[in-house]
């Protein structure tokens, strides 16, 4: 029974994705009126969004061991890949703070990843940073995240500026809005 409900939910989510135009802001990162970048969407590609917890071992392993194959096998040429570091986070209604399932370190890394996505909209570039963060998470060294920028030869200043300015938090809040929207749509369809 539970597996039937799960399959039904995935089918409904897939059907919803067919009816939501790529031009809608629900696919792209936050609207650029907040100073955030919006990624261009190639309508000839398949849209794929991956919502994940930054410090979840299974999510990290999937990103490092499995998702890499999308790039290694050139599937990225036919996919609009959207990485969303949110999954089981929520906004506390009392103090309006973002709360992450695996604590403050996860919120920090998720916000930094949202900033990397914003600073480098090219999926090949921000995936490299996310891959590095996730690799460190698997090894229990997530606090060494700054080393990823040196390893990849990327300037961390733009990502840190995004984080300090609050644009990363804006991206996270926008993601929360998207998650609520899709969840409410699925709940309405499942009833």
Overall description:
- The protein has 191 residues and is mainly alpha-helical.
- It has a single domain, classed as 3-Layer(aba) Sandwich (Glutaredoxin).
- 55% of the residues lie in helices and 8% in strands.
- It is built from 7 helices and 4 strands.
- The strands form 2 sheets. Strands 1-2 form a two-stranded parallel sheet.
- α3 packs across α6.
- The two termini are 15 Å apart.
- The N terminus is likely disordered.
- It comes from Quercus rubra.
- Belongs to the GILT family.
- InterPro entries: Interferon-induced_GILT.
Key traits:
191 residues; mainly alpha; Glutaredoxin; two-stranded parallel sheet; two-stranded antiparallel sheet; 55% helix; disordered N terminus; glycoprotein
Q: What's a quick, concise take on this entry?
A:
The chain has helices spanning 2-19, 57-72, 104-119, 123-138, 147-152, 157-165, 167-190; strands at residues 46-51, 79-84, 90-91, 98-99. With 191 residues, the chain is mostly helical.
- Assign the CATH class: Alpha Beta
N- to C-terminal separation? 15 Å
Specify the CATH architecture: 3-Layer(aba) Sandwich
The largest sheet, given as strand count, sense and whether it forms a barrel, is: 2 strands, parallel
Question: Overall pLDDT, averaged?
Answer: 80
Secondary-structure-derived class? mainly alpha
Our count of helices gives: 7
The total count of strands amounts to 4
**Low-pLDDT residue spans:** 1-33
- Indicate the percent of residues in helices: 40-55%
């Amino acid at each position: 029974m539970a597996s039937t409900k799960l399959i039904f939910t995935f089918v409904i989510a897939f059907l919803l994705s067919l009816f939501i135009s790529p031009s809608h802001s629900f696919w792209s990162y936050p609207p650029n009126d907040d100073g955030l970048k919006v990624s261009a969407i190639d309508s000839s590609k398949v849209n794929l969004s991956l919502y994940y917890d930054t410090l979840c071992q299974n999510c990290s392993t999937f990103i490092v061991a499995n998702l890499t194959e999308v790039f290694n096998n050139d599937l990225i040429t036919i996919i609009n890949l959207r990485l969303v570091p949110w999954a089981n986070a929520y906004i506390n209604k009392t103090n309006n703070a973002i709360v992450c399932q695996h604590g403050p370190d996860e919120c920090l890394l998720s916000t930094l990843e949202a900033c990397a996505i914003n600073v480098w909209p090219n999926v090949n570039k921000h995936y490299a940073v996310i891959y590095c963060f996730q690799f460190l998470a698997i090894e229990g060294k997530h606090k060494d995240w700054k080393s990823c920028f040196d390893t990849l030869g990327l300037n961390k200043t733009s990502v840190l500026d995004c984080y300090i300015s609050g644009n990363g938090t804006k991206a996270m809040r926008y993601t929360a809005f998207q998650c609520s929207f899709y969840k409410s749509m699925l709940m309405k369809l499942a009833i």
